[in-house]
Write a structure and sequence with these properties.
By secondary structure, this protein is α+β, with helices and mostly antiparallel strands. The chain is built from four helices and seven strands; from the N terminus they run ααβββββααββ. The radius of gyration is 15 Å and the shape is globular. The N and C termini lie far apart (about 30 Å). The C terminus is likely disordered.
């Protein structure tokens, strides 16, 4: 049974990364001045854009050090940003994303950790328990 959960967890993580890439593309299309997704924080702080809004493929809500995207289907993709602008996420955000899917997945931290480990070429652990897409492979 663990194998099936691992595949599901891997699919969840890959889907999360793909949805994050789509949200990034939607934000860049809506706000051409964005050089990187993290720049949305500066646009909100300078009041050039609202803290939340609709983007066509998803909605966004900027919070503290990050941004939460909600897809049309209701799936949640939440990221924080590092000081150098990398979009990062942890297992808690992956679990929330899984629970928000149209067919909710409630995966264990162990299953998600195993999936992240399997995806090491795609993902980099930037600090303990926090991951980013390695060298912008989400758009590759």
């Amino acid at each position: 049974m663990g194998g099936a959960h691992a595949t599901t967890a891997r699919d969840l993580v890959v889907g999360y990364v793909e949805a994050l890439s789509s949200a990034d593309a939607a934000m860049r299309a809506a706000f051409p001045s964005l050089e990187r997704l993290a720049d949305v924080l500066g646009l909100v702080r300078s009041r050039k854009i609202g803290r939340s809004g609709e983007l066509g493929t998803c909605s966004y809500k900027v919070h503290g050090a990050g941004c939460r995207f909600i897809t049309r289907e209701g799936s949640e993709i939440d990221v924080d940003f590092t000081a150098d602008g990398a979009a990062i996420f942890d297992l808690w955000r992956l679990r929330r994303s899984g629970r928000s899917l149209p067919a909710p997945l409630d995966l264990t931290e162990h299953d998600l950790w195993s999936a992240v480990e399997l995806l090491r070429p795609l993902l980099a652990e930037v600090r303990p328990g926090w991951f980013s897409v390695a060298e912008d492979k989400a758009s590759a």
